[in-house]
Amino acid sequence: MKTSPVEFGRRIRSLRSAQGLTQEQLAEAADLNPRTVQKIEAGQINILVTTLVRIQSALNCTAGELFGEEGSPFLENSPPTSGAEPELTQQSKKTEARQNHRR
Q1: Least confident span in 30-39, 48-57, 58-67, 77-86
Q2: Cα-flanking dihedrals φ and ψ of residue 62, to 5°?
Q3: Which SS3 state, helix, strand or coil, does residue 13 take?
Q4: What is the distance between the alpha carbons of residues 85 and 4, in angstroms, rounded to a whole number?
Q5: What is the pLDDT of residue 100?
Q6: 14 contacts 72 by C-beta, under 8 angstroms
Q7: Of the N and C termini of the chain, which has fewer Cβ atoms inside 10 Å?
Q8: Does residue 21 contact residue 14 with C-beta atoms inside 8 Å?
Q9: pLDDT at site 2
Q10: Distances (CA, A) of 89 to 5, 53, 80
Q11: Gap between the Cα atoms of 90 and 93, Å rounded
């Protein structure tokens, strides 16, 4: 079972909220544009592994917590998944490259 971008975004939002962070604070900590965080949380975009690592570092969590593996203290109400990474599309790579270029 794959984790959809919408499910992944909900998990990011849940982890961020549990830590009392705003989208802007997460964006700053992860060196991302705040609009990118908004789009990730809304499930509007797929992300690159480098962005995943930035978010993971900023939230000080495991990949399992990001993908909703059982036992995550932040995601007790989320359904468990297989831990599959979101599918990276050519469009998401182009979007990520544009966002990185703007910084």
Answers
A1: 77-86
A2: -90, 165
A3: helix
A4: 9
A5: 59
A6: no
A7: C
A8: no
A9: 72
A10: 12, 17, 24
A11: 5
